[in-house]
Amino acid sequence: MDPVTEQPPKVVKTDAEWRAQLSPDEYRVLRQAGTEQAFTGEYTDTKTAGVYSCRACGAELFRSDTKFESHCGWPSFFTPLAGDAVIERADVSLGMRRVEVLCANCHSHLGHVFEGEGYGTPTDLRYCINSVSLRLEPDA
């Protein structure tokens, strides 16, 4: 899996503007690349049909029909809504080699993507995304 080349964000705000817009937990995850505690997020077990958007900027990121049960403690998807909806970049923090997933629109941290874990999904990918990074817009 090769990380995608980054483009500048379309939504640009100051740190103060992000802090005013987001709750402390949202800010910690979305703007500081934090991680919510496993099995605590509001969308971990949600089965509602709809579109998952970036909680920071509202960009559409994932569809519910690509969400699957990974039992990892965070919502998991096998593909983004569109090829350009997310950015993937190398993350070597915490002594690990991972691929970070960010919203392409505002560059907010969403989670990480993992490959080859044997879930039997069409892409063999698991986009492991923090619930606090998302907002579900249910289908009508």
Automatic annotation (TrEMBL):
Quote the catalytic activity from the record: L-methionyl-[protein] + [thioredoxin]-disulfide + H2O = L-methionyl-(R)-S-oxide-[protein] + [thioredoxin]-dithiol
One matching Pfam family: SelR
> Domain MsrB spans what residues?
15-139
Q: What is its EC number?
A: 1.8.4.12
GO: which molecular function terms? peptide-methionine (R)-S-oxide reductase activity
Q: Which PANTHER family match?
A: METHIONINE SULFOXIDE REDUCTASE, METHIONINE-R-SULFOXIDE REDUCTASE B1
Give the protein name, as stated in the record.
peptide-methionine (R)-S-oxide reductase
The record lists the organism as: Pseudonocardia aurantiaca
> Lineage from the top down?
Bacteria, Bacillati, Actinomycetota, Actinomycetes, Pseudonocardiales
